């Protein structure tokens, strides 16, 4: 595994966010500018490759910075009756 990625985790960014921080989080993980990731999502959407679907899926499965669980994990935990993040 590349040493640059050891210990890094996909997290939605709090600093580089326009909507939900997905593109900023991916950019932080890859070490590139968030604008590049945003442009990739726009191009994928315009070419019909479901960029919006991928963005929403990433929003659901990527936890935000400083949070233990993703939004989807919180939803599942609430249905299971387990305590959420406080």
Automatic annotation (TrEMBL):
<keyword id="KW-1003">Cell membrane</keyword>
<keyword id="KW-0472">Membrane</keyword>
<feature type="transmembrane region" description="Helical">
    <location>
        <begin position="39"/>
        <end position="62"/>
    </location>
</feature>
<feature type="domain" description="Phage shock protein PspC N-terminal">
    <location>
        <begin position="8"/>
        <end position="65"/>
    </location>
</feature>
<protein>
    <submittedName>
        <fullName>Phage shock protein PspC (Stress-responsive transcriptional regulator)</fullName>
    </submittedName>
</protein>
<dbReference type="Pfam" id="PF04024">
    <property type="entry name" value="PspC"/>
</dbReference>
<dbReference type="InterPro" id="IPR007168">
    <property type="entry name" value="Phageshock_PspC_N"/>
</dbReference>
<dbReference type="InterPro" id="IPR052027">
    <property type="entry name" value="PspC"/>
</dbReference>
<dbReference type="GO" id="GO:0005886">
    <property type="term" value="C:plasma membrane"/>
</dbReference>
<keyword id="KW-1133">Transmembrane helix</keyword>
<keyword id="KW-0812">Transmembrane</keyword>
């Amino acid at each position: 595994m590349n040493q640059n990625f050891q210990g890094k985790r996909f997290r939605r960014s709090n600093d580089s966010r326009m909507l939900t921080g997905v593109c900023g989080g991916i950019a932080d993980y890859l070490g590139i500018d968030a604008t590049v990731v945003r442009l990739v999502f726009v191009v994928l959407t315009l070419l019909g490759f479901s960029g919006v679907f991928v963005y929403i899926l990433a929003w659901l499965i990527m936890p935000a910075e400083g949070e233990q669980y993703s939004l989807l994990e919180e939803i599942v935990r609430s249905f299971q009756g387990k305590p959420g993040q406080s």
